[in-house]
Amino acid sequence: MHELSIATEIINIVEKEASRQHLTRVEEIGLKIGALTGVNPDALTFAFEASTGDTSLAGVVIKIEKIPVKGECRACGNAFEVQEFVFICPECGSSDLKISQGEELDIDYIAGQ
Ligand SMILES: [Zn+2]
Description:
This protein is α+β, with helices and mostly antiparallel strands. It is built from two helices and six strands, in the order H-E-H-E-E-E-E-E. The protein has a domain of 78 residues: 2-Layer Sandwich (hypothetical protein PF0899 fold), CATH 3.30.2320.
């Protein structure tokens, strides 16, 4: 399960970051997940809850912001949101695109005390 290994990695990063920030308790973790990552937010939340049960992060709230795919046309310079994974410029019909957004898998913030 893809999401389980991602959850494990996020837990590792958050635990390190929490100790760096001297947080005794992490209450909320904000994630940014691009549509192109193929990560299912519900599955990730579930994997996270399953993996944190016996750690210091048990009960932490996960807020996931889904990042839509955005592209930039190399032919005409048009910047647009890619709908339904159709990688074609709506202005000129070119398929020569630069993906500018949608591949993120980032920890946006860690909140706690
Ligand atoms: Zn174009």
